[in-house]
Amino acid sequence: MAQRRVQVQPVENGRTWWEPFDQLLVATGAIPFLPDVPGAGAAGIYGLSTLQSGIEVRRAVDQEQPRQAVIVGGGYIGLEMAEALRLRDLDVSLVEMMPQVMSTLDVDMGALVSQALRGVGVHLYLEERLEGFEVADGRVRAVVTDKQSLPADLVILGLGVRPNTALAADAGIPLGQRGAIRVDDRMQTDIEGVWAAGDCVESFHLVSRRPFYVALGSVANKQGRVAGINIGGGHATFPGVVGTAVSKICTVEVARTGLQEKEIEQLGVEHVSARIESQTRAHYYPGAGRITVKILAEKGSGRLLGGQIVGVEGAAKRIDVLATALHAGLTVDDMLNLDLSYAPPYSPVWDPVLIAARQAVKLV
Amino acid sequence: MAQRRVQVQPVENGRTWWEPFDQLLVATGAIPFLPDVPGAGAAGIYGLSTLQSGIEVRRAVDQEQPRQAVIVGGGYIGLEMAEALRLRDLDVSLVEMMPQVMSTLDVDMGALVSQALRGVGVHLYLEERLEGFEVADGRVRAVVTDKQSLPADLVILGLGVRPNTALAADAGIPLGQRGAIRVDDRMQTDIEGVWAAGDCVESFHLVSRRPFYVALGSVANKQGRVAGINIGGGHATFPGVVGTAVSKICTVEVARTGLQEKEIEQLGVEHVSARIESQTRAHYYPGAGRITVKILAEKGSGRLLGGQIVGVEGAAKRIDVLATALHAGLTVDDMLNLDLSYAPPYSPVWDPVLIAARQAVKLV
Fold first, then answer.
1. Which helix (H) or strand (E) segment is A60 a member of?
2. Across chain B, how many H-helices and E-strands are there?
């Protein structure tokens, strides 16, 4: 094989050079979606993707003392920024083009999160599409949607990310789902000796058995470990993900794993859906509060397909039971008698996850 | 078959009678171990097994204003009473005959719980055996161990329970492990049409594949559901337990599942043990605190055998991931890439359970 090399250009200006390699890791991450609308380049509009962008937003809040913040996008970044800015006593509006925030949840569960946002005083504008920004003297003055103009002296964009793979594509490395780099389960690209990991790569979804793109630190870390072991001459595999994610808005916890209803429908799989309300602790124990658990399972077989949780403190981490059950391919019937921990400070005598499984079993 | 019947005697005096039955459920529960030592019948000594016994202890604390409480036994009841009495500002001593409290944990993990007890001001006396009570005027004055005499005006006995099966044994229903009623996976005893559920029955341990006795509300509830469905003409099974349990002492959470080291050794299985320390949240997130996770796995195969967790708030419920993995028969290698939820308020980017699994994989 001819000597392979990669062209290196320092971030701070300097002479570029060609660096020879035997093994190459592409870890170029993701870049935030920026909207191609009028005024998008104005001062006062922030994306959030790096530590530096977080520092800049905090500096703006500290020094410019904005009063009216508008967040565009109701995903994790949007939710977390809504919490942070409300805690700084800003007037916060959030614009989301879908019928509910957190579009990785089903609409009924997303509605609980919308309710939580309103509960902390966020003005929520659902089913509104960003059309542009009003700008004066180079600074943003308002966010313009298809329905209204929202005054703003601080704008946060939380429109999601896409894999940063222009470099890989230019080098001829094949891409897959949503332009992410295609890799095998050892994190090797279609080019031998060229590896990739993190937010720039495609993952495999262990429930849908399809390629899947997800940009999360927990996944990126696991992929990096596997790529590193293999590049170092060892053997490790990353079988894939089940789509677990978790967030919070003040005291309300939100978690999801597996497939949501619209994904299941797209796969043409017939399913049942069980949604139950319970408590995070024994009802008489101090601090007990509401938790809603939704479980999706295949009709007939009862195979677990996904789950979603919204509730008070102690709710969200229960999603890990469902994530583990998805990895293991359990059915809701298998789950009925899971020996989950019980003591009054931690759970009702039937853990809410088991109550949801019981309900699902009746429908399967 | 001849008409079957059961003799009924009201708790409050009355005429006994014979009640005919087609199906019979024995749900006689468990009774606390009471020590056969001098003075055990004195006033001021309380076992804890029913709501009524809890009410009596509270009444004693409220009305008799005891100052020096001694708890005998360092299991769940002992720990929870130590917390409750410390919160009522009593001087609390705890006597345990084993080298650490919580003997269902390995000694190294139990030591963390002992440390937590001392941290809340409990005087802890390990490796001391109860020999009797000093009594004056019919009231307890001191707890006597093989090493000392501890002044006490309130004594709590937390010596564990045994299945309450005298009635079943008298009726000729076969007993198993520790005198608990033997049942099949539908909760039927060896006598057709006679069922049993709850703290009076033997369970099957899904990890050791041996009969096992456990008295916990979560298990009893699942068994009751299964017995009820079957008695009603349906079909349900209770495959068994993996030995999950959870408790807390003030701010320290304690959880365990599967087999502990001494049980694994008794089975003659070669195993590895991985114990790691991590944080309950991202290290920079407010409220992050220490969590210790121990994982036990079979040498060679890597099959998960058990796990134990001690840590601050948010630590204990993570045991449910290990319980689910035990049900599914996962290996620590399977667990490495579990897609557990991550966001800074909930977990480091590698969940502590995964860090422990990573450590175990290296040793397998």
1. helix A51-64
2. 9, 21
- For chain B, report the end-to-end CA distance as a whole number of angstroms: 56
Q: Find the domain containing B174 and state its range.
A: 165-231
What is the torsion angle, in degrees rounded to the nearest 10, for the CA atoms of residue A343, residue A328, residue B212 and residue B217?
Answer: 20
Q: For tokens 């295949």, what's the residue?
A: A298
Task: Return the number of other C-beta atoms located less than 10 Å from residue B182's C-beta.
Answer: 17
3-state class (DSSP) for residue B123: strand
Nearest chain B residue to A255 by CA: give it. Answer: B341
Give the pLDDT confidence of B94-125 residue by residue, as tens digits: 999 999 999 999 999 999 999 999 999 999 99
- Residues 153-192, chain A, touching B (beta carbon < 8 A): none
Domain match, B227 and B110 both: no
Alpha-carbon distance of A255 to A275, in angstroms, equals 14
**B151 and B184 together in one domain:** no
Q: CB-based burial of residue A37 (10 Å sphere; 0-12 exposed, 13-18 middle, 19+ buried)?
A: middle
Cα dist from B258 to A21, A332, B206, B237, B261, whole Å: 48, 22, 8, 20, 10
CA distances, A35 to each of A60, A159, A324 (Å): 21, 8, 37
* B250, B256, B260, B261 alpha-carbon torsion, rounded to 10°: -70
In a domain, A104, yes or no: yes
* Angle subtended at Cα A227 by Cα A222 and Cα A229, rounded to the nearest 5 degrees: 95
Using the Cβ of B333 and the Cβ atoms of chain A, whether some distance falls under 8 Å is answered with: no
Please give the model's pTM, rounded to 2 decimal places: 0.96
Q: Report the 3 state secondary structure along B219-266.
A: HHHHHHHHHHHHHCCCCCCCCCECCCEEEEECCEEEEEEECCHHHHHH
- Asked, for residue B351, whether it belongs to a domain, the answer is yes
Tell whether B267 is covered by a domain. Answer: yes
Residue-level pLDDT at B1:
55
Would the CB atoms of B343 and A248 count as touching at under 8 Å?
yes
Q: Provide the CA A176 distance to its chain's centre, in angstroms.
A: 19
Q: Based on the domain organization, do B155 and B43 belong to the same domain?
A: yes
Q: How far separated are the first and last CA of chain A, in Å rounded? A: 56
- pLDDT tens digits, residue range B2-60? 688 888 887 777 788 899 999 999 999 999 999 999 999 999 999 988 899 999 999 99
> DSSP assignment, residue A296?
E
State the sign of the Cα–Cα–Cα–Cα dihedral B111, B112, B117, B120. positive
One domain for residues B190 and B302: no
Tell which of A161, A193, A213 closes a domain: A161
Amino acid at B263: E
Residues in chain A with pLDDT < 50?
Answer: none
Within an 8 Å CB–CB cutoff, is residue B327 touching chain A? yes
Query: Are B110 and B169 members of one domain?
Result: no
The answer to whether residue A357 sits within a structural domain is: yes
B143 touches chain A (CB under 8 A): no
Assess whether B224 and B270 both reside in one domain: no
* Count of beta carbons in the 10 Å neighbourhood of residue B99: 12
Share of chain B above pLDDT 90, in %: 93
Subunit contact B345:A239, Cβ cutoff 8 A: no
Please tell me whether residues A58 and A150 are part of one structural domain: yes
User: Where does a domain end: B161, B182, B200?
Assistant: B161
Kindly state whether residues A153 and A41 are assigned to the same domain.
Answer: yes
Chains A & B: contacts with CB separation below 8 Å: 158
Number of domains making up chain A = 2
CATH number at residue B111: 3.50.50.60
Closest of B111, B152, B108, B112 to residue B133, by C-alpha: B152
Please name the residues between 239 and 268 in chain A that touch chain B, using a CB distance below 8 Å: 239-248, 253, 255, 257
ipTM score for this prediction? 0.96
Mind listing the pLDDT tens digit for each residue in B279-323? 999 999 999 999 999 999 999 999 999 999 999 999 999 999 999
Looking at residue A202, its pLDDT comes to: 97
